[in-house]
Amino acid sequence: MSDPIRIQLVCLGNICRSPLAKAVFRDKVEAAGLDEHFEIASSGTSHYHVGDPADRRMRETADRKGHSLEEHRASQFSEDDLARFDHIFVMDKSNLNDVLHLDEDDAHGGKVRLFREFDPEPDDYQVPDPYHGGRQGFENVYDIVERTADMLLHQLAAEYDLIETDPQSAEEERE
Ligand code: 4NP
């Protein structure tokens, strides 16, 4: 078995957007029968919430849509992550600046991209920070993450020549 494709999803606090993006992407990978091909992590560029569970509002939104964030504990993105991960997908342009700032030798910048580059409706290419807003902001983040994670998985599956299982037949196989 070859090395897994190492994916890191990054936001500011690692309690709202990137934990959701990780959970949704992970669940799509599992449904496609591709878990063994991926290692999926998330982190925040700040230290503000290190060790904390995901934000309650994000957990509730994820739960309603069938994704669990219960296991999540926040961590901070590090310079080592830049070397270790194959693809780093950031939620907004401020995250992009912060991550690239750690790339002192300009060795890894090519791995770092805005997550919404894969969104079929990319708007300004950023996942808006829902932390200081109301419930609608969390729903909006969910909708963006859901459709972007789908396209991201298709794109990576094509790039790495992985065969995706139809989620419906994967479900039937498990029963
Ligand atoms: P996240 O949201 O980056 O999507 O996890 C935020 C969480 C916390 C803060 C800002 C954004 N904060 O300022 O504490």
Q: How would you describe this protein?
A:
41% of the residues lie in helices and 12% in strands. The protein is α/β, with parallel strands linked by helices and 175 residues long. It has a single domain (5-174), classed as 3-Layer(aba) Sandwich (Rossmann fold). It has a 4-stranded parallel beta sheet, with helices on both faces. Helix 4 (93-101) links the parallel strand 3 (87-90) and strand 4 (112-114). It is globular and about 45 Å long. The two termini are 27 Å apart. 4-nitrophenyl phosphate (4NP) is lined by residues 11-17, 44, 48-49, 129, 131.
What's this model, at a glance?
This protein is of the alpha/beta class.
Low-confidence stretches: none
Approximately what portion of the residues adopt beta-strand conformation? 5-15%
Going across the biggest sheet, name each strand in turn: 2-1-3-4
Helix fraction, binned, reads 40-55%
Series of H and E elements: EHEHHEHEHH
Secondary-structure-based class equals alpha/beta
Number of domains: 1
> In angstroms, what is the radius of gyration?
16 Å
Query: CATH architecture, please?
Result: 3-Layer(aba) Sandwich
- Number of helices, counting only DSSP H or I runs of 4 residues or more: 6
Shape: globular
CATH superfamily: Response regulator
* N- and C-termini, Cα separation: 27 Å
| Mean pLDDT reading | 95
CATH class value: Alpha Beta
Biggest beta sheet summary: 4 strands, parallel
Tag the structure with descriptive keywords.
single chain; 175 residues; alpha/beta; Rossmann fold; 4-stranded parallel β-sheet; 6 helices; globular; binds 4-nitrophenyl phosphate
